[in-house]
Amino acid sequence: MTDQEVRIVRSARRARTVSIREKDGYLEVLAPATSTDAELQPIIARLRRRLEGRKVKRNLSDKDLEQRAELLNRKHFDAKLAWSSIAWVSNQDQRWGSCTPAHGTIRISHRLAEFPPFVLDYVLVHELAHLIEPSHNRRFWSLVKRYPLSERARGYLLAIAGEQREGDM
Ligand SMILES: [Zn+2]
């Protein structure tokens, strides 16, 4: 996230809503006249994250994802894996990634694009490993551990998901 300068513009015409937009290289926040800086801080932080998320989403390319997967395939699976498609999806709220081994299709949640690359790599390796082993059994985890940062990435995702999303990863 960039540390863009924020300018707050208060207006009596705004009753309650706060909005944020990029203008001439800074972030303009339109806020109700009575709002205080302290009230606005958490709202601004949230709107900034959303704005940033939208930007990241626009830049997502399935081709980049494919290349990343190819690289991991060479590095950790002797380039032996084959799949039919790897794509970003934005309708996957419950899971970071999914794999349908029978069809060779892998889907990756767009939310991962906002995380450090080693986390995305972990999810890719996880889904690639499902091409060999569909279940989360011992064989599966030994495949995943070929990626040296897998434990760290799992910790990262668990911390983000909190209690909402235990399970698949
Ligand atoms: Zn899995």
Structure description:
43% of the residues lie in helices and 19% in strands. The chain contains five helices and six strands. The longest helix is centred in the N-terminal third of the chain and has 22 residues. The chain is an alpha/beta fold and 169 residues long. The protein folds into two domains: 53 residues, no CATH class; 100 residues, Metalloproteases ("zincins"), catalytic domain (Zincin-like), CATH 3.30.2010.10. A hairpin with a 4-residue loop joins strand 5 and strand 6. It binds zinc ion. Zinc ion binds next to helix 3.
The CATH topology assignment of the largest domain is: Zincin-like
Which percent range fits the helix content? 40-55%
The CATH superfamily of the largest domain appears as Metalloproteases ("zincins"), catalytic domain
Q: Name the overall outline.
A: elongated
Q: Spell the H/E element sequence.
A: EEEHHEEEHHH
**Mean pLDDT, all residues:** 86
Q: From the coordinates shown, what is the CATH architecture of the largest domain?
A: 2-Layer Sandwich
Spatial strand arrangement across the major sheet: 1-3-2
Report on the biggest sheet. Answer: 3 strands, mixed
Spatial gap, N to C terminus: 26 Å
Helix-and-strand structural type: alpha/beta
Query: How many domains would you count in the coordinates?
Result: 2
Low-confidence stretches: none
Number of helices: 5
Number of E-state strands: 6
Strand content: 15-25%
| Ligand identities | zinc ion
Q: What is the alpha-carbon Rg in Å?
A: 20 Å
